[in-house]
Amino acid sequence: MFGELRRSWTEARPVDRIAYRIGAALIVSGAFHFGVWVISGDAWDGPVSWRKATTFGLSFGLTLITVVWVSSFLCLSSRERKVLIGTFAAVCTLETALVTMQVWRGTPSHFNQETTFDTAVSRALAAGGAVIVIVIATLTVMSFRANPTVERRMRLALRMGFIALDLSLLIGAAMIVEGVTQVYAGNQHEAYEVAGFLKPGHAATMHGILILPALAWLTSFTGWPESRRDAFVHIGVAGYALFAVAIIIDSFSGLGAIAYVVAGLGGLLLLGAGVLTIAAVIRASSVARAGGLTNRS
């Protein structure tokens, strides 16, 4: 398993290595700003809180690294890969940098039209979001290309993961539209509160692109028969879908307890599949090591 991870780096194309480094830098930025928040003692919530620099750094860094990794399973030409990964890395950097800059300036990053400069930043963030939607939508379409070199369960995990990320981006776009509508209606301060009600759905669907392919990837180290590996990935996909859909529905309709019961059941399915898979990986590794020691003795 660790050999596979090393090969992901040693065999990576130059654009992939650059993107991996950028993703790591963004994660470091998010961790640093979390430390700044802890030391400052400021509130976590609010349009100018350190939370934004923290979450944007961590989320964009993790998502960039994830997209680079999962795209290695897609049937992409060298030029397609260079354009898509390069563009995505550049926009992730721009979005995080602009948000972080505004946090340090003590001004909101989104929906802010107080000055000409703030308006330009807000529009640049919106434009960057549109580019991200286009890149991820393109990768989603490409995940449905025939690729017999990739296991069926991984193809399923990739497709469902990209669809979940698409949903997250669409919810984010809806948040921006709702906020901008409030701004043009003269309610700039209300824009931050009105758009915030969609945050749970946005967050719940963002990292399926990592969770589901990682689950499919881990099953390949279990020693299980193909049917069991496929079954566990299907359970994980079903659990994640239940969890995400329930949170999204609650965001829009406010079903409350019912939605969270369904989300909990879905989360338990996904967690159970993941825990059992990891346990099987550890077991298979122990057996392999024991066999190696026996052979050497």
Automatic annotation (TrEMBL):
Keywords: Membrane, Transmembrane, Transmembrane helix. It comes from the Bacteria. The chain crosses the membrane at residues 20-40, 55-76, 83-104, 124-144, 156-177, 197-219, 231-249, 255-282. This is Uncharacterized protein.
